[in-house]
Structure formats: C-alpha cells, structure tokens
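Ticket opened by: R.M.
Priority: normal
Category: complex prediction / small molecule

The reporter submitted a protein together with flavin-adenine dinucleotide and asked that the result be attached to this ticket for the collaborator who will pick it up next week. Submitted input follows.
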Amino acid sequence: MPTDSPIHIIGGGLAGCEAAWQATRAGAPVVLHEMRPLVGTAAHQTDLLAELVCSNSFRSDDWEHNAVGLLHAEMRRLGSLILACGDVCQTPAGGALAVDRVGFAEAVTRRILDHPLITVERGEVRGLPPADWASVIVATGPLTSPSLSLAIQALTGEDELSFFDAIAPIVHADSIDMSVAWMQSRYDKEGPGGEAAAYINCPLTRDEYEAFVDALLAGPKTEFKDWEHVPYFDGCLPIEEMARRGRDSLRYGPMKPVGLTNPHQAGERSHAVVQLRQDNALGTLWNMVGFQTKLKHAAQTEVFRTIPGLDAAVFARLGGLHRNTFLNSPRVLDARLRLKAQPRLRFAGQITGVEGYIESAAIGLLAGRMAAAERAGVDLPLPPATTALGALIGHVTGGHLDGGAGSFQPMNINYGLLPPMEPPRRSETGKPFARGERGRAKKRAMSLRALADLDAWQAAAGPATRVDDPAYGDPYAQSLARQALS
Ligand SMILES: Cc1cc2nc3c(=O)[nH]c(=O)nc-3n(C[C@H](O)[C@H](O)[C@H](O)COP(=O)(O)OP(=O)(O)OC[C@H]3O[C@@H](n4cnc5c(N)ncnc54)[C@H](O)[C@@H]3O)c2cc1C
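Result attached by the on-call engineer:
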C-alpha cells in the first residue's frame, strides 16, 4: 500500500546502513535509529555507523572462485554503499578486500548523515517499535539490546530467538568419500518422509577414535571473551568439553555406533561413528551432528579430516560458540524477511541468521529494497536462487532443512547454498581441464551463471533508483571516503 510515512530502520550497523541507502535509492525517506553512543554494546568502541567490531577484512574479493567474492560483485552491481566505501578505503591484503576500519566507518557515516532522505536519531529503541511505525527494519545485530530482544522473543516465542549460537561444522556433500562412508538412519528408522537412510555415517576403529579424542583434547581452543558469558547447555556441549569429561563420552553421545551397520566392512562393528545430516534442501551441504566446538578453525580442519570418509572434506562452515542474537528465521520470517507474527517488522543483518559483515550487509540491501518497494505498492521479485544474494536469503527464509530445536545456525555464504552445476570438462578455448582444475572451473561457471541471472533479474525488476543516483563509483562517495582517510 503506497504511503508517505518513512521507513524506520533500527540499528546503524552494516545491515542498517545498507538498508537505508538502498531504500532511499528507490525514493523512500528513512529514519535510522542508532543507540550508540548513548547506549553501548560489549563490542563496539565508537559512535560511528557501520563500525567493524573485529577483523578489518571483508574476506576474499575473488568473484570467480569464491562465494563471498561473488557476493561482493553482486552487491557492487546493485550499488552497495558498504562495497563502495570498502573499495575506496582498501588496505593491501592480497586477494582479500580489507579496509581501513576508521576510514571506512567514517565514509559510511558521512554518506548517511549527508543524505537528504535520511534522518539519524540517536537513542535505543526499547521494546517493540511504536504502533504507528508502519514499516520497520530491525537490524540490531548479534548484540541487540536486551529490551528489544526480549520484546521480539515475546512475539516469536522463547525457542525462536537465540542468544548464543552452537555451530557444528558443515561439509560439502561432494567432498565426502562414500567408498568409506555410507547412508543409513540409526536402526533403519524411517523418518516422517519415509526415508530410512537419512544420514551419512563415517566409521572409526578403536585406534582411530582414541587418536581423535587425543587430538580434540590437545587442539588449540578459542577463548570466550569476558562479556560473552556463554553457558554450556546440556545437549549442545562442545565436543572437546564432552571428551574432557570422559574418554568414552563421545562414543556414548554424538558418536555412538549403535543401530548402524557398515556395508563396506560386513560383520565388523564400528567403535564409533560420526553422523552427518542433510542441512539444505538442495542436498549439497551436510552438518556434523552434535559437533559444536570451540577448537580453532585451523585445528578443526586438521582434526576432522582424520575422520575416515572426511579426509578430503571441504568445509562450508566451521564450528563455534558465541554470544549471538538470531532468529529461527526459516520458521518465523516470510520469504520477504517479514515477521509472520507482525509483518510490519522486517529483519536484516546478522539477526536473521547470516554470519559475517558482508552477508549482514547483503541482507540489509535486500531488506531496504523490499521495504521501499512495498511502500511504493510494488511487488519486488526475489533474486534468483542461482545468485549469491538469492541463495543467502533463500537459506535463511526456507532453504535450511529443519532438523529440530537449534538446527538452524548462522551461515556464511558458500557455493553449497547455490544449485549445483556439473563441472565443465573443457575451458572456453576447448582445452580439456585436468582433474584438479575442474573444481575451480565449476565455481567460475557458477559465478558466471550468478552474474548473468542477477543482471536479468535487475533488468526485469526495473532500476532501484528513482532519481539519477550513481551510488557505485560515485565521485562524491569516493571524495568523502578519501577525506575520511586523509
Ligand atoms: C564480537 C564480534 C566479532 C565479530 N567479528 C566479525 C569479523 O571479524 N568478521 C565478520 O565478517 N563478522 C564478524 N562478526 C559478525 C557480524 O558480521 C558483525 O557483528 C556485523 O557487524 C553484523 O552486522 P549487523 O548490521 O547485523 O549488526 P551490527 O553491525 O552489530 O549493527 C547493529 C547496530 O544496532 C545497534 N543497536 C542494537 N540494539 C539497538 C536498539 N535497541 N536500538 C537502537 N540501536 C540498536 C547497535 O549499536 C549496532 O550499531 C562479529 C560479531 C561479534 C559480536
């Protein structure tokens, strides 16, 4: 329904600033509410908008072979403020896009403050937004203030807003060695869909299990920050903590071998079994059941590749436990990021269950465009599932397969979220690829498909800009960012 009222955006972080920028590009006025510096968070240090709370890297910028690089490329094509300011504030980082953190945040802040359609109001939104805010984007991030979190939780139900994540690693299906692993559900029990072989199982002998437990205990762990206060809930203990409580705990817990028969070794009972459960509807990603961990990422890759069947595993996500406020989005949001219980509230950023600066900004980009389109009475089609943007929003609003309480956990963009493609056999010049080159060629083919599909979508959806607003490559944005850096 067309209206004159502004879009209220709560949270001036990566997602909120991108959402504001995109909404104004479509001509919508925005009021951006940011509580800092009046009320702080445990991680932010400044009063700047879009502050980077930890690393200064937006990760790989390789659009041809890396999914986050592809997301950069797509966002640049859609006039992303975060990418435009990131590009101007680059610092040397090889193939990654790293930025001068202060220069970057200052460039975004000035751009937002100077925008004639954006009003920035400093102050915490405590509790649910006033009823007369007809269109709201909640982009308050992993450290959403308690008063607002509790109000959201009252709307969604207690189980649908988490304050901590408990992330188990996710493996690309095509990197699992099925000549060692096998498909079977415990005791061949049929699931609701009649499937009796729903899990991938990786067997360990006694010696392999003992070596695995030693490696878990010895591996370097990430320390919790003082303010995180992450509790250990029964049912999602880190695996190294389980191993510390008793060498056989894992064998009687997530690695129990009962009810499983290894077809590759008839008659031999496995000493322990690691199970993987399908994580997305495409079947390209599988999570290691019960394997939440605080092991450092490099150690996880090393230790988990000692598991038979996973020796060449490619991880789409590694495990972790953090303080993190996020919704069970596949259940509580609709396809356009609106809360089913109160559709005037749209969500964006890390609180929707994506992970990372760029992923948060990407969901902000879509939320801003959707809110502006809705305000103008236009139905904005979703970006195709073959694009990184489409795959990311698809995952948080429905692509994840519900595996019960706590199964939806924060996710980075990765190629496993996009519909798979057969790896090309020949290069563009007709030269056959060597075996080891086909993985890279497949990623490149998926990236090319994504950009072509994004361009077609953008052409069909019509320009987001109502006035002549060349956001990306805009000399004004660049000169502001340069001033901020000097
Ligand atoms: C400690 C920590 C370290 C991280 N490190 C990285 C990293 O190195 N790399 C990476 O890619 N990702 C990292 N992340 C994850 C994530 O990418 C970032 O948190 C990212 O900033 C999320 O973007 P966002 O816009 O959703 O939230 P934010 O950038 O956090 O923005 C949310 C904003 O909302 C404001 N706010 C909160 N509640 C209210 C309220 N009630 N009223 C008004 N304003 C409110 C906050 O002050 C904040 O400015 C980290 C997260 C945390 C918590």
